[in-house]
Design goal:
The structure holds two protein chains of two kinds. By secondary structure, chain A is an all-beta fold. Chain A is 0% helix and 60% strand. In chain A, the strands form two sheets. In chain A, strands 2, 4, 5, 9, 10 and 11 form a six-stranded mixed beta sheet that branches. Classes of the chains: A mainly beta, B mainly beta.
């Protein structure tokens, strides 16, 4: 089945690292994504990773994928107040480009 | 760079009325996706179109219909509106030549409020 889970809330201090976790159940997922949504705004694609990769780094963002445990994480280094938002992980499969989203993690960055 | 354009940004309708949401994809994108995001919820896939044909269908109510036109823009028609239809409706677009797997671009959404 298709089910993506995330913890609901994360609070960090400005300058610290944030780690947002996601688990998925569909082992046929081929592509995994992280989207950011600020209040009242649209969904901004942050990064993606293919299922044959275990890590991807893009500036302050590091994505780790543990395919055996079906666990995906997003690490944000040197978290800033502008990073406060809801972060959604999402999966898709080769056969369909539709995205299955997790429930979202609300990140609050304290000054 | 041009993005996905959705209109209107906000829409208020009464129960049992009809609403039409429009989506203009990024130029040269031939695939359009519609998602619904209820308050405090994650986005749910509704329907997608490729080259004016429906390509995939998700949890779209029978009261809703959608189509993609020859200029690739898409419209989501919602009839007999219910209070539970109040949500953010997102459109996204991609090109079939291979970039959809790299994550597609969403519009800013239409916020529909049914009163």
């Amino acid at each position: 089945g298709e089910d993506v889970e995330q913890s609901l809330f994360l609070s960090v201090r400005e300058g610290d690292s944030s780690v947002i976790n996601c688990t998925y159940t569909d082992s046929s997922s081929t592509y995994l994504y992280w989207y950011k949504q600020e209040p009242g705004a649209g969904l901004q694609l942050l990064t993606y990773i293919f299922s044959n990769m275990d890590m991807k780094q893009d500036q302050r963002l590091t994505v780790l994928l543990n395919k055996k445990d079906k666990h995906l994480s997003l690490r944000i280094a040197d978290t800033q107040t502008g990073d406060s938002a809801i972060y959604f992980c999402a999966e898709s499969m080769d056969s369909s480009y539709k995205l299955i989203f997790g429930s979202g993690t609300r990140l609050l960055v304290r000054p | 760079a041009a993005g996905v354009i959705q209109s209107p940004r906000h829409l208020i309708k009464e129960k049992r009325e009809t609403a039409t949401l429009k989506c203009y994809p990024i130029p040269r994108h031939d695939t359009v996706y519609w998602y619904q995001q209820g308050p405090g919820q994650d986005p749910q896939f509704l329907i997608s179109f490729y080259e004016k044909m429906q390509s995939d269908k998700g949890s779209i109510p029978d009261r809703f219909s959608a189509q993609q036109f020859s200029d690739y823009h898409s419209e989501l028609n919602m009839s007999s509106l219910e209070l539970g239809d109040s949500a953010l409706y997102f459109c996204a677009s991609s090109s079939a030549t291979g970039d959809a797997n790299y994550g597609y671009t969403f519009g800013s959404g239409t916020r529909l409020t049914v009163v």
